[in-house]
Amino acid sequence: MSKLVALTGTTGAMGGEVLLSLLKSPLDLRVRCIIFDKEKTIPSFVKKTLKNYEGRVEAFKGDISRYNDCVKLIEGADYVVNCASLIPPKSDHDPDGTYKSNYVGTKNIVDAILADKRNKEIKLIHIATVALYGNRAYPHMWGRVGDPIISSDYDNYSRHKLKAEKYVLESGLDYFVSLRQTAVWHKYLVKNNMKDGLMFHTTWNCALEWVTDVDSGILIKNIIERNEEGKLTDFWNRIYNVGGGEECRRTGFETFEECFSLMGKGAKKFFKPNWNISRNFHGVWFYDSQELEDKLGFRTETGKEFWGRMSKKYSYFKFGKILPASLISSLAIKRLFKNTNAPMYWLKHDKEGRVKAFFGGREKYAQIPHKWEYYNLLCEGKLADGTEIDYAALKKEENAKPYLLDHGYDDSKPLEAITLEDLQSAAKFRSGKCLAKSYDSAHLHEKVLWKCRDGHEFALTPYTVLKGGYWCPHCCEPMPWKYGSIADIPFYKQVYFDSHDLSDINEVYPLSEHEEDFIKK
Predict the structure, then answer these.
(1) What 8-state DSSP symbol labels residue 86?
(2) pLDDT tier at 43, thresholds 50, 70, 90
(3) Predicted pLDDT at 188
(4) What DSSP designation does 104 have?
(5) Residue that wins the pLDDT comparison between 189 and 14
(6) Which of 36, 39, 224, 396 has the CA that lies 20 to 30 A from 490?
(7) What is the maximal distance between C-alpha atoms in the chain?
(8) Mean pLDDT score of the chain, rounded to an integer?
(9) pLDDT for the residue numbered 518
(10) Phi, psi angles (nearest 5°) of residue 59
């Protein structure tokens, strides 16, 4: 029987691959796409796919921030795949568009499903993000579902994705899954990052577990295929971390090194260590990403294979082997210092909030070495203070347990074994209380009352708290950014001070400092 898949984000790096994978499926899948009506150009890859499969795909122009367009999109659909998202660097320059795409669009899709007469049949596949975990540094470079949700300062992308995922979790949908997508190696990666100061937002020693655009598309296809085959048990109504596994784990420096080595020279030839931020990024190695691979078998490419594909696709890697590294650095990289999203711009134009958020202040920035021989790289076996470490052992999953965060209860239990005592213990670890008088694990997705240390009472499902990593919406999603205000809560303290100190706890960062100030809901 034919199945209809409604797809958002079709023109994006992931959405385009999802479209192609779905249309390649041996199942009789039809796809209805919404293409943002303000999109200036549609990528040739997407145009080609739409043309080659025109009998099985329907595309219309619209905007998911308009509810009626979402109703049109999901009408008659069996599955809804929400890939739409305004991501960095665009999200850094368009806060209003980010709010509409990343939160309002998701809310409209959920509301449209709930209002549909077939709402108990429609299955939502929501794409969330690793950015929900915020900045992670040694020793807590390993993450998993249930870790605290902390948006990085000034990261409009993550703060609206946070609101969006929580809306999905708390919606009462009969069938949903939230996929916290890791960093994606995609065909537009180099081109997009060579246009904006975002290039300098990757910390050299951050943990990144990548996945390729192709594998992300295969993942979504496999979910639908295996569900139709009746092979997905205990899958729906959960959160999963999406990652490529050990073969795709890198640090920020290794990521740059792998790319720029295609020009015959390493990253050290093109960059200086003090050009990139030292904190307030996002990235993590996923301790639990294998769970999704075991269920769906979607991994087909490693980083080496991806960059091999890119080296054949783009001619500028060949030219890079001919031209001097200093010339490329001057013409292609240093020119981005003038971009409002670049750290050098913040330093030159006295954007002290950003200097504090991304470096810890001017004094700490001044301490960053200007030469690589004095900079300690984790991938070369050195911690920030120079202490030697076995990096190869550090990034192996079997060695990760000592580095995992505490969730405040026995999280090794299966979901059906969770008790009221577990809810109470988790709340206490968050310096609050669970106000429920009783609890049955069959009601994991039904809201109960909680109370934070400041006396706010709020209703969230046990799953959203225990496995989502969320807590008080009044205190723990602070706007403007002021996560230092919750840094003394044990749940957050264990990770916050990996990259902050006591001088940060009273900082309040404005919503915007290099664009016009804005206030959003």
Answers:
(1) -
(2) confident
(3) 85
(4) I
(5) 14
(6) 396
(7) 71
(8) 94
(9) 37
(10) -125, 135
Strands 211-212 and 184-185: parallel
Exposed (0-12), middle (13-18) or buried (19+): which is 110, by Cβ within 10 Å? buried
Cα 338-340-343 angle, rounded to 5 deg: 80
Structure tokens at 102: 């990343």
The C-alpha atoms of residue 505 and residue 256 are separated, in whole angstroms, by 32
The structure tokens 């990652």 sit at: 243
Angle at 488 between CA 487 and CA 492, to 5 degrees: 50
CB atoms closer than 10 angstroms to residue 247: 13
Which residues lie closer than 8 Å to 2 by C-beta, 6 or more apart?
Answer: 28, 29, 30
Q: Dump pLDDT digits (tens) for 72-94.
A: 999 999 999 999 999 999 999 99
418 phi/psi in degrees, rounded to 5: -70, 135
Question: Which residue type sits at 432?
Answer: G
User: What is the C-alpha separation between 225 and 23, in angstroms, rounded?
Assistant: 12
Which DSSP category does 100 fall into? I
Q: Which of 153, 469, 122 is nearest to 288 (CA)?
A: 469
| Residue bearing tokens 């950003």 | 354
**Are the C-beta atoms of 200 and 336 separated by less than 8 Å?**
yes
Q: Quick check: 40 pLDDT over 90? A: no
CA distance 106 to 172: 14
- Give the number of residues written for the chain: 521
Q: Which two tokens stand for residue 47?
A: 């145009």
